[in-house]
Amino acid sequence: MRVAIACFLCFMSFFSVAKTLTFTAIPDEDESRLRERFDKVAAYLSEQTNVDVKYVPVKSYAAAVTAFRNNQVQLAWFGGLSGVRARGIVPGSEAIAQGYEDQFFKTYFIAHSSTGIKLSESLPNNMAGTTFTFGSKGSTSGRLMPEFFLREHFNQSPQQIFKRVGFSGDHSRTIAQVQAGAYQVGAVNYKVWENELKAGKIDLDKVAVVWKTPAYPDYQWSVRGDIDEQFGTSLKEKLTQALLEMKDPELLASFPRQAFVPASNKDFQPVEDVARSIGLID
Fold first, then answer.
1. Which SS3 state, helix, strand or coil, does residue 270 take?
2. Grouped pLDDT means (10 residues each) for the chain, 282 residues
3. b vs e for 224-244, b when ≥16 Cβ sit within 10 Å of the residue's Cβ?
4. Who contacts 49 (Cβ-Cβ below 8 Å, separation ≥6)?
5. Residue 82 to residue 138: CA distance in whole angstroms
6. What is the spatial distance between Cα 161 and Cα 150, in angstroms, rounded to a whole number?
């Protein structure tokens, strides 16, 4: 009898866990800041869908993709490149929403004041020979697109263009490292730059924007292709509706985005094409 009860309790425990929708986000900023904002998003999504929703942090962009592949998370806030990678290895997965701004995202190239590099309409030639840092190796705005524009302009790899090339890990650290002079030049997500500037964390006497890239598609919410099978039909539709109808200024400001708009996999074909062209995906 005790064995039967124990088995029943184990089954119920498993069933309860299975019915919790988990999601993650690429770690593009400080972890404590991410947890604060995404715990609020989890509460909002749970309220809107009547499903228990939990945010699970990860340590890297690659870990976010792995968690999605392994069904440790069923929903993720990805960058353009990480989303392309994740959907490519989980059949039927879809991009369902993106920030309004993500339709025309940008990277800012920033430089320490000691370099003498000034804001330019084209990539400054005099950044060649400096030290340079990307963000994460898996970042669209911190690595993929800046590397593409560098190769296009200089017709060389970053290692050939710069004296030393690094990867800071996230956009906040890129700003901090260039501002401190650890690297002379860096590439950063423009939304993180604007957010840090607004928060008073950037000293414009030490670091400034020297070039702004053309627009490209970036961040998006993606769901696994089997999400309705796991949680019942229509959850994907409910999640999509909840994201598109997110109106709380505090929630939107934490991204920061003015609104979420519909997205589809085809919107990110340009990102996939660039990633293939420079060998970041096969």
1. helix
2. 47 51 88 84 96 95 96 97 96 97 96 98 97 95 96 97 97 97 97 94 98 96 96 94 96 90 97 92 82
3. beebbeebeeebbebbbebbb
4. 21, 235, 238, 239, 242
5. 7
6. 8
